[in-house]
Every structure is written in structure tokens, then in C-alpha cells.
Amino acid sequence: MNLLLDTHALIWALEDNPTLSPAARAAIIDGRNMVFVSAATVWEIAIKRALGKLNAPDNLLEELEKHRFTPLDISAIHADQAGRLPPIHQDSFDRMLIAQAQVERLVLVTRDASIRQYAVQCLVA
What we know:
Elements lengths: L1 E4 L1 H9 L6 H8 L4 E5 H12 L9 H7 L3 E3 L3 H9 L7 H13 L2 E4 L11 E3 L1
Helix pairs in contact: 5-6
């Protein structure tokens, strides 16, 4: 199974936070699964950390590498797909994650109920 982590799922995984569901934790640490982190998530964390709205590691890219998470760049295909999504969810970062999960056929690890209204496979974070 190939996973794409929503921002909160990534932070919970990095912190080993018990809020992360046992199923999500097991999938993330299962060496048979590839775990992707979108450039949109890195961007969102950097913005929110700079605004003082989020406590996240200053060395986020090093942490991603340490945990063997695979960076997922944003492509024109992802951007086009995000723009075509129905307006259920207004958060641009989440819309990009939905589009990337759809295009790349990834399971999106999230606790956001709005995301689960889209045609995207999800695993509850």
C-alpha cells in the first residue's frame, strides 16, 4: 500500500503521538508500504510554523529522510486535477493532497471528514 500523509498525520507520526490511530501507525511503519509526503504539506508546515500557528520540527526535511518518507513533488497534472475537484473542501493544501492521491493512486492518511467526501481512498489517521 502506498500512503500519502495529511499534515496532521505527518506531525503525529513524527512525534509518535498516541492520537494517531493504531491502523495508521501500523501502515506507516510497515516496511512494505511507501510513505509519501507532499511538497504541499512541507509548504503548509513552513507557513504555519513561521506564523507561530504550528509547532513542528525546524529540520523537517531531515526528519522526513530519517523516517524514510518519500517526498512527492507537485506536478502540472496534480495542479490540473486539484482545480477540477468539486468545491466540497476549500483548503488549497488539502485539495492538492486529494488530487495527488487520486492521480498517483495513493491512500490518503487523514482524519479530515471533508476529504473523505471525495473519490479518494483514505485511512483514518
